[in-house]
Amino acid sequence: MKIILQHKFEDLISIDNLLLAWQEFLKGKRSKRDVQIFQFNLMDNILQLHGDLKNKLYKHGGYQQFKINDPKPRIIHKASVRDRLLHHAVYRILYPFFDHRVLRGKTKKRMLRRIKKNSGLETLNSYLGLLKHGKSDRIKENILNRYV
């Protein structure tokens, strides 16, 4: 089964997607000063980001460096709120596509490795039972032809 990404650049940069990304980004960050400053002029900032993206004027800014001790000392680099908002907007659109595709591929490889290692009836039946779910007819047929 071939999975096709059906979103367009316009979906990614849409005001709706940017607002939804803001809501997700905001969780646990409301008390941060940089987030509060961005939120004070939220719609202006989102409209500016949208316009820059639409007109291909967007430039990713630099990173702020700071130290934390949680649980050990580390140096962290943080993008601006505007850039992190865009990161969330991209993530919202692309994550479901890449997560599903990668997960199916890894699961298939793992399953075939385990069947090859132990091609007993119990192992085959267990995986064939799993393959009842979803669109897996070709994988099931491949396994049956190869090991039965």
Q: How does this model look, in words?
A:
There is one protein chain. By secondary structure, the protein is mainly alpha-helical. The chain has a domain at 9-100. It has seven helices and two strands; from the N terminus they run ααααββααα. A two-stranded antiparallel sheet has the order 1-2. Strand 1 (63-69) and strand 2 (73-79) form a beta hairpin. Helix 2 packs across helix 5.
Write the layout of secondary structure elements.
Layout: H1 9-13, H2 15-26, H3 33-40, H4 42-54, E1 63-69, E2 73-79, H5 81-117, H6 121-130, H7 137-147
Antiparallel strand pairs: 1-2
Keywords:
148 residues, mainly alpha, 7 helices, 2 strands
Numbering strands along the chain, what is their spatial order in the largest sheet? 1-2
* Biggest β-sheet strands, sense, barrel: 2 strands, antiparallel
Strand content: 5-15%
Radius of gyration: 23 Å
Count every beta strand, where a strand is a DSSP E run of 2 or more residues. Answer: 2
| N-to-C order of helices and strands | HHHHEEHHH
Q: What global shape is seen?
A: elongated
Helix and strand composition category: mainly alpha
- Which ranges are low-confidence, i.e. pLDDT below 50, for 5 or more consecutive residues? none
Subunit organisation of the chains = single chain
Mean of all residue-level pLDDT scores: 83
Cα distance spanning the termini: 23 Å
Number of helices: 7
